[in-house]
């Protein structure tokens, strides 16, 4: 594929070259954005990465079957899930003025991100007790879950 002139910012495109230690000839050349090359590496070497100690405690198997989505797509997905659960965000806003702050998709997305971070911390430091902020956040997350889940 030929890159169009002026389509990309400086530093947006990178080239990775793969060779062997014994030879200076290249086995393959991969050209793409930093993020697209990283995604390819994860797809190519995912099963090997799954054996790393930082990932081995997880039930996740990196088999290359994944999708990377940005925050706007994540928010759209959360809205779709809420709609499929029969939660009408526009109705909530009309009834209560601002609506229920716990049902804002960004609040849910932030809560999920925090849960993932808390799980990683708990995995890395299993003997550490949760601090007051973590306990408050856990209580808040349970409140959000009770509003969403039947």
From TrEMBL:
Pfam families xref list: UvrD-helicase (PF00580)
UvrD-like helicase ATP-binding domain residues: 23-128
Source domain of life: Eukaryota
InterPro entries xrefs: DExx_box_DNA_helicase_dom_sf, P-loop_NTPase, UvrD-like_ATP-bd
Record's keyword terms, sorted: ATP-binding, Helicase, Hydrolase, Nucleotide-binding
Keyword Nucleotide-binding applies: yes
A Gene Ontology molecular function term of the record: ATP binding
Transmembrane segments: none
UniProt-recorded name of the protein: UvrD-like helicase ATP-binding domain-containing protein
Organism expressing this protein natively: Ditylum brightwellii
Record lineage: Eukaryota, Sar, Stramenopiles, Ochrophyta, Bacillariophyta
């Amino acid at each position: 594929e030929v890159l169009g002139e002026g389509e990309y910012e400086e530093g947006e495109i990178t080239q990775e070259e793969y060779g062997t230690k014994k030879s200076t000839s290249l086995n393959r050349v991969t050209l793409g954005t930093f993020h697209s090359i990283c995604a390819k590496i994860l797809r190519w070497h995912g099963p090997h990465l799954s054996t790393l100690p930082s990932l081995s405690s997880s039930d996740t198997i990196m088999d290359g079957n994944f999708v990377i989505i940005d925050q706007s797509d994540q928010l759209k997905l959360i809205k779709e899930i809420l709609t499929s659960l029969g939660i009408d965000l526009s109705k909530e806003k009309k009834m209560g003025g601002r609506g229920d702050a716990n049902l804002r998709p960004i609040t849910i997305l932030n809560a999920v991100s925090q849960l993932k971070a808390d799980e990683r911390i708990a995995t890395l430091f299993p003997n550490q007790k949760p601090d007051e902020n973590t306990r408050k956040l856990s209580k808040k997350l349970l409140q959000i879950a009770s509003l969403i889940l039947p």
